[in-house]
Design a protein that fits this description.
Length: 189
């Protein structure tokens, strides 16, 4: 079904290309299993949202992150994708909930800034900048800046550092597992 009343208020909306980030976390000591492994700045999301040729006061955007565990490959919706198991598989595979993700920037633009968040199931999403809010113009350095701007001109508002922490405990099968976190930027309708 098409929404014929949708209008485009922004011009160019994109996350500047960033290389794919892969991290291998090796849990080989008791302290790593119990305390987890944290990686700060594992990825950086740089946002650019340009206005149309004419300034449109309705140009706004949202930014979300989602988790994907390759459910088409037979992975249960709450588990990491198993690439290789090491041992007899007497326990359960790691659950998505052991991945904690934190978003940071200098302006605390995201309401979740600095607070670790977790996913539960494949396809879950976390709002970095909430969709459908009133326009908050760039240059204000407050929560939910979602008006036109760029990390090139307003770096502190349009640049997001991504940190991860994984705390597996001893209840999961040893092996090699994979989980993907994706970012999606779009203009608000």
């Amino acid at each position: 079904m098409f929404n014929l009343s949708a209008q485009i208020h922004c011009g160019h909306v994109e996350i500047d290309e960033n290389t794919t980030v892969s991290q291998i976390l090796t849990f080989d000591t008791f302290s790593k299993y119990n305390g987890g492994i944290s990686l700060n700045g594992v990825a950086r999301v740089r946002v650019r949202v340009e206005d149309l040729a004419v300034v449109d006061p309705l140009c706004s955007w949202s930014l979300i992150m989602t988790v994907n565990n390759n459910p088409g490959g037979g992975t249960a919706g709450t588990e990491w994708e198993e690439l290789a198991q090491d041992g007899g598989g007497l326990g359960a595979n790691p659950t998505i909930g052991i991945l904690q993700v934190r978003v940071r920037n200098s302006c605390t633009t995201s309401p979740m800034d600095g607070v670790y968040q977790t996913f539960t199931n494949n396809g879950d999403l976390i709002n970095i900048i909430e969709p459908m809010l009133a326009v908050t113009p760039s240059g204000s350095c407050v929560d939910n800046v979602n008006g036109p701007g760029s990390y090139l001109t307003n770096y502190d508002e349009f640049n997001f550092d991504i940190d991860i922490r994984v705390v597996p405990s001893f209840s999961f099968n040893p092996g090699l597992y994979q989980l993907n976190v994706n970012f999606h930027l779009e203009e608000n309708p």
